[in-house]
């Protein structure tokens, strides 16, 4: 059986095409080595609108395109997440009306704020596994369409307890963040994943800003149409509810799980092997980097979500602003996500081009620490212009840091990508709940002091970035290991599979990924890739 | 020496800012003439009043102890929160600085000042929250600044208070719509899921 490609150059590995490869019990390529979905040497990539790598992941990012399957997945993903952010924080700008209708106290409002971000701690953990098992489309659609009833049920709420429960249940849908970044991670290649995830995450996070403008506007229109305020706010919640259902249906009809097709189809054909949930979880928990990322994200995304809940009230009280002025300032905090987070992802990708993974780690540390610094300044600011300036700089630093973290997450594991995305995302919600509880739910701290304190704690915890070390690429202060075997990307990613599993060829996907991840060596990748032959567990006849 | 001059100059500028800032903002509640108006507020029935339905019969007239009567141009009558309804609710806080004070947000009526006793039948608005209240009438001068007031309760805000129960804001039609859309959402998801599993099975058997 002739194989067309003999040089083994980057991006064109032909596992399963030559007779010298392993024979798989779950055939990755079909019985005769070629199936309609397998990689033919130069043809199948032509059926994609964008240039792709060996895993059929897109190598370029064209935000204005809706081409199947890559760009469509991107747009459906971030819009789903955007819609869920709108729903989760929809109550915040309407609190002045809701607190009068339900006779809420400050404690009630604070607790509901904590509840609104707590639900997602658990759902973000679960959704990674769901995506691994059912595919990104159903992961997303489940969240959208099963939490829509919670949004609609705001019409039933009569007291503080009901309000808290409903906000808690709506908050579960924030797990769309994980399903979205999972979806983009399977659709886009490592070199650009920082930028892609940054855009998806940033444009999704914008929902937290847009809702501060959208909900009051919808409320006002409904009031003008004749409803009394205490009914109008309930009707207003139907808008995010409808959006969720509509986007959910679009995801299922227009989207595709993987570049080559939908998961259930590919699994039944034997093109994608099913993995065991317990194994996937185990390899995520075994990896110490998971825990570091959990904490780091808690102090970037976590404090961003806390600010979404408290900043409008802060400006209203401290500077005696009108409610809609405070709302506009609060909205601009969330809206700066539009460019801040993509820039963070882009900066991560750029630094990786020159310095590899070490560059990504330094970029993250710089962005997150400066975010914390500006947060301290925001708490200290006594004049409105300085407060707004420090808030915008703070928003940029912390949101760009979020983008930079997700430039790193896809490389921590290939087998457990879903769970680790989920755990990192859960860390964000955990950080938000924790900071709200510690600094903003009691009268122990003035809000201004609370802000400075979260800035300080963020800067301290960001020092943990120094502990993220990859044997094949290094860390902030250490270079890659000099051990010849351990310094290969394949070794790191293949280590997630047992020998028995490797014999079955289940690790083929990880090997493909490892090869594509060689770009994380930085400038050296260009020279390394051309001279060394492809490393495989069995020596191939080149 | 130049440094000292700059420092002193900046200090002076800051001070000027403070003074000018304070001058326009610091009209205090404690400066107003107390008890200039005699105000009564009588609920239409006993017990907790229902917003949107029950009424208050409000009267106000000039008190014999009033001294600033010449300045009165307009009377603003407002519904104010009693202390018990302000607990753990900083957005209803009583502040001495008038522009910061948030304890009387609900306007009842504004009328030009008239020497004769005035009265007004006020139907509790449907956006009045649940709480305990009293009525206060501010006497406002031609510049729009409050100069005096009178209220239906005593200075400690403990007597002659009345309670209001807000409307729930819920409607049966809203509840039904909510249930319908929720059911649709869940069903649609299930239909898609089952359908796709079926199609995949068919593919596999081919």
Automatic annotation (TrEMBL), chain A:
- CDD domains hit by this protein: MFS_NRT2_like
Q: Which residues form the Major facilitator superfamily (MFS) profile domain?
A: 73-473
Q: Which GO terms describe its cellular component?
A: membrane
Compartment(s) where it occurs, according to its Swiss-Prot or TrEMBL record: Membrane
- Record membrane topology: Multi-pass membrane protein
Tell me where it mainly resides: membrane
Write out the transmembrane intervals: 76-98, 138-158, 164-183, 195-215, 235-254, 291-311, 323-340, 361-380, 386-412, 419-439, 451-470
Q: Which family does it belong to?
A: Belongs to the major facilitator superfamily. Nitrate/nitrite porter (TC 2.A.1.8) family.
- The name of this protein is High affinity nitrate transporter 2.6-like
Recorded source organism is Raphanus sativus
TrEMBL record, chain B:
Highest taxon above the source species:
Eukaryota
Q: Name one GO molecular function term.
A: nitrate transmembrane transporter activity
Keyword line? Cell membrane, Membrane, Nitrate assimilation, Signal, Transmembrane, Transmembrane helix
- Its transmembrane ranges are 176-194
InterPro entries given in the database record: Transptr_NO3_Nar2
Organism listed in the record = Raphanus sativus
Among the GO biological process terms of this entry, one is: response to nitrate
| Signal peptide range in chain numbering | 1-22
What this chain does, per the record?
Involved in nitrate transport.
Instruction: Supply the name of the protein.
Output: High-affinity nitrate transporter
Question: Which family does this protein fall into?
Answer: Belongs to the NAR2 family.
Cellular component, GO annotation:
plasma membrane
- Family matches, as Pfam families: NAR2 (PF16974)
